[in-house]
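Give me the 3D structure for Tungstate transport system permease protein.
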Amino acid sequence: MQDFGEAISLALGLVLSGDADLLEIVALSLRVSLTATVVSCAMGLPLGALLATARFPGRGAVIVLTNALMGLPPVVVGLVVYLHLSRAGPLGFLGLLYTPAAMIVAQTILITPIVTALSRQVLEDLHSEYAEQFRSLCLTRLQTVQALLWDARYSLLTVGLAGFGRAVAEVGAVIVVGGNIDHLTRVMTTAIALETSKGDLPLALALGLILMTIALGVNAVVQGLRMTAVRQAHA
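Predicted structure for Tungstate transport system permease protein (235 residues):
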């Protein structure tokens, strides 16, 4: 227990002192995860809106597949991306393996189905509520999607938050395609795993504290935005 207390104390010291290695790892983690989240939302939200509003043969199967892909095993995604980006793979000429770009690709593949499936559910419920009004206004499919996305923007923030949470906590896929290389591809989750195995608990705990703080901070911001929206709606 004493050793654990000392580790906590040293971890807080690293955070408060702004340790250079610690800040580098945190900055890379945020850059990779935020980029993957933005790309996933850019693809997943329109796809979710299309599934919510369109009616076509096989739609049910597509929804089932999308929901199933939410549980993609990270190491399998990492392996598939690795095979495509390796020297013998079809995209090996890009030289992206063991770079932050490869990690962004892996995280994007993991969280796009989450964004698509969750946004589809949110927008489908909203579309059912507004369907008659949309028909009376003779809106095109594009106008309908735009209206739904705007009206559900605060709910969709939560969808984006779910995607970011999945991305920033990911370790399996990013360690396969990133290699956990110091000063290049080492992010918070891979560093925590490495430092714990080495017995360097202060750095691992410091990174864990920052990871939890980021998660709580993002949740607080989104909750604040939603509460502001509710107050404005009732004003």
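The domain at 20-187 is CATH 1.10.3720.10 (MetI-like fold). Let me know if you want a second pass.
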